[in-house]
Amino acid sequence: MLEQMEWTQRYTDFLSGKDSRPARIVYQRDRARVIHSASFRRLQAKTQIFGLNESDFFRTRLTHSMEVAQIGSGLVEQLITVGIDDAGREKEYVQWLPSMYLIEGICLAHDLGHPPYGHGGEVALNYMMRHYGGFEGNAQTLRILSKLGEYTRENGLDLSRRATLGVMKYPAVYEDVLSKHADYQNKLQSPETSDFRVLDFNSWLPPKSIYKEEMPILEWALQPFNESDRSLFTRVAESDGGHSRTQYKALDTTIMELADDIAYGIHDLEDAVAMKMVGREIWQKEVMDSDELMRYPLWGDEMTERLFSNSSKGRKHAVSQMVGIMVEAIYMDENPNFSHPLLAYQARLEEGAMAVLELLKRFVFKNVITIAEVKQMEYKGQLIVLELFKSLRANPGALLPAKHFAKYQAQKTEQEQQRVISDYIAGMTNTYASRLYAKLFTATQGSIFDML
């Protein structure tokens, strides 16, 4: 397998001028560092869709990340299988595919930066950080990998260059993305609301970006590419509405994102069916009788029978079959605008599978993610995050734990100080955040002896 040592380099080794180690050792340790990190363990108490108190059965960010890793490795295996021609020769892209260690490490790490209460908490933190570099889940993931993770003193989990590149979904800095959104810039001039309950959360969706503080990591990750590739890869496209964003992903990122989408569109569907939030009638109307499935009949009525059989085994067989159909539909595309294989090669799904997967994602979004019962819990979580941030900002010396306050005091600018508060809240689990909120704001709750 072709694997330049530059891709196995760690940022710490880059700074100290040390040689890189072989890929097999490095990528296995990348995965191990993610699995054994505190940020990964905390995902067990962070929301996927349903509240953690609904049932022990439903998925959390941790189980979701594990499923993404399993699907990701399956996608790589399928690309290897279809990457051998009739004469038994490997296609050129095969030598650039990530190892199983590497793709699993990337997939397991992809949600490390998600704050408590999922995307709702993400929006709340972005509002509080709107004048201080913003907040975005994938940007926070990169920050954990490069700064906050516990494996090194200053460089976080310190993963390899290729793993870092694979996790990075939006290689543009927050301020550069904002420069292309005049309406959002105008909103930034409005005063902070005095009542968070009337805040229009949809107006504060975070720009897809990385933080300015991690710019050196971005430059290091992109160092092996030529100037033309770097320029195109980091270019922010104009948008007709909403935030602009970068257009391209690295090879490993395209595999991870497909695995993430499959898990979202199919595994999260299983939770909705098990909880009886999605009934057979609406499934038949919006999925089975849809234009997409009529055009691309990837499965028939037997899938409906299994999915709604009131049997966990039946549901599992249906879900497994749907995932298998998606995995077997992967192929390798090539973008001629890039010269480096890690940017030129792009994993994609065949047209029919992609159309049906997008249909499933829309179905879950409409019938699960955006229903009032789910949005109400998200709204409550957002208010918790906002009130905690407001209080910590006003009283950092009294309310921040000692180690976080010491870090806060050591910062040179107000933006760096606010980032310390943001990091503290983003690292909380749903349970920790709700207990801290109750301790601070509920008269009958809380004790100096509480173990949050």
Automatic annotation (TrEMBL):
<dbReference type="InterPro" id="IPR023023">
    <property type="entry name" value="dNTPase_2"/>
</dbReference>
<protein>
    <recommendedName>
        <fullName>Deoxyguanosinetriphosphate triphosphohydrolase-like protein</fullName>
    </recommendedName>
</protein>
<dbReference type="GO" id="GO:0006203">
    <property type="term" value="P:dGTP catabolic process"/>
</dbReference>
<feature type="domain" description="HD">
    <location>
        <begin position="61"/>
        <end position="265"/>
    </location>
</feature>
<dbReference type="InterPro" id="IPR003607">
    <property type="entry name" value="HD/PDEase_dom"/>
</dbReference>
<dbReference type="GO" id="GO:0008832">
    <property type="term" value="F:dGTPase activity"/>
</dbReference>
<dbReference type="InterPro" id="IPR026875">
    <property type="entry name" value="PHydrolase_assoc_dom"/>
</dbReference>
<dbReference type="InterPro" id="IPR006261">
    <property type="entry name" value="dGTPase"/>
</dbReference>
<comment type="similarity">
    <text>Belongs to the dGTPase family. Type 2 subfamily.</text>
</comment>
<dbReference type="InterPro" id="IPR006674">
    <property type="entry name" value="HD_domain"/>
</dbReference>
<keyword id="KW-0378">Hydrolase</keyword>
<dbReference type="InterPro" id="IPR050135">
    <property type="entry name" value="dGTPase-like"/>
</dbReference>
<dbReference type="Pfam" id="PF13286">
    <property type="entry name" value="HD_assoc"/>
</dbReference>
